[in-house]
UniProtKB/TrEMBL annotation:
Transmembrane segments: none annotated. It comes from Lentzea kristufekii. This is Trk system potassium uptake protein TrkA. Residues 1-117 form the RCK N-terminal domain. InterPro entries: K_uptake_TrkA, NAD(P)-bd_dom_sf, RCK_C, RCK_C_sf, RCK_N, Trk_Ktr_HKT_K-transport. The keyword DNA repair does not apply. The lineage of its organism: Bacteria, Bacillati, Actinomycetota, Actinomycetes, Pseudonocardiales. Keywords: Ion transport, NAD, Potassium, Potassium transport, Transport. The keyword Oxidoreductase does not apply. It comes from the Bacteria. Residues 137-218 form the RCK C-terminal domain.
Length: 218
């Protein structure tokens, strides 16, 4: 894919390096001369420009991108970049970094955001996930806030141990997508059985998150 990243600070460069190593074409857009360092990610295309200016994005060829990542340290900039990418250039996938969790409610379809990534929320979720049994932990918001990726860990004495995935009665708007067991990642099939200590990942709406918890006996 061709990916444009707005913001070539530490976060933007790290994302670019990962994507380049996976074989994607990456363009880094950076206004600040202090952060403009093509030698740091040599395989990427570098553009020194203001990512909030429509003409700059046109000249950079954003209309040719499959994905845009707004990764600056300024939430206002990330929102403007997301809106321009979606409305002016019809970019299929727009991912935006949320720096201040209090601004997370803004990062929705109205601003062109498909996926909002809040580092503070993710770090907090990782802490909760590591110590919490039986509670729903929200890991990520997907599809303009219409769905969430959530996790719940079964305790060792769960009554669902040994029961098949097909026996789970989940709410209508919840889908079990992954079971994490030890070092394994299991894509659940109807006949797969659950074990105590399993970490279950669901894609669901916020409205039924607590229903998932109740369905698992918590």
């Amino acid at each position: 894919m061709r990916v444009a990243i707005a913001g070539a600070g530490a976060v933007g460069r790290s994302i670019a390096q990962e994507l380049v190593s996976d074989g994607h074409q990456v363009m880094l857009i950076e206004r600040d001369r202090a952060h403009f360092d093509p030698n740091s990610v040599e395989q990427a295309e570098w553009v020194q420009a203001d990512a909030c200016e429509l003409s700059s994005l046109e000249d950079a060829g954003m209309q040719l991108c499959d994905v845009v990542i707004a990764a600056t340290g300024d939430d206002k900039v990330n929102l403007v970049v997301s809106l321009l990418a979606k409305t002016e250039f019809a970019v299929r996938r727009v991912i935006a970094r949320v720096n201040d969790p209090t601004n997370e409610w803004l990062f929705t379809e109205s601003w062109g955001v498909d996926v909002a990534v809040s580092t503070p929320r993710l770090l907090a979720a990782m802490v909760e996930e590591s110590v919490t049994i039986g509670d729903v932990v929200r890991l990520m918001t997907l599809r303009q806030g219409q769905a969430n990726l959530v996790e719940i860990t079964l305790d060792e004495s769960t009554p669902f141990a040994g029961r098949a995935v097909s026996e789970l009665t989940m709410p209508r708007d919840a889908a079990l997508v992954t079971i994490l067991r030890g070092g394994r990642v299991i894509v659940p099939q109807p006949d797969d059985t659950l074990e105590g200590g399993d970490e279950l990942l669901f894609v669901t709406t916020a409205a039924v998150e607590q229903d998932i918890k109740a369905a698992l006996g918590y």
